[in-house]
Amino acid sequence: MPETSWGSPIEQTSTEKAEAIKQRYQKAILADDVNCMGSYVFLWGQKQERTPSWYGLFTEAGEKTEAMNVMEYLWTGQWPENMAPRMKDITIEGKGGRFDNVKLKKGNQYSVKIEIEHIDVESLSVRAEVMPEPVELSVGGDYEPRPASIEGLIVSANTTEVIFKAPEKTGAYRILVYVTDEHNQAGTANIPFFVN
Question: What structural domains does the chain harbor?
Answer without folding.
Answer: 14-195 (2.60.40.10)
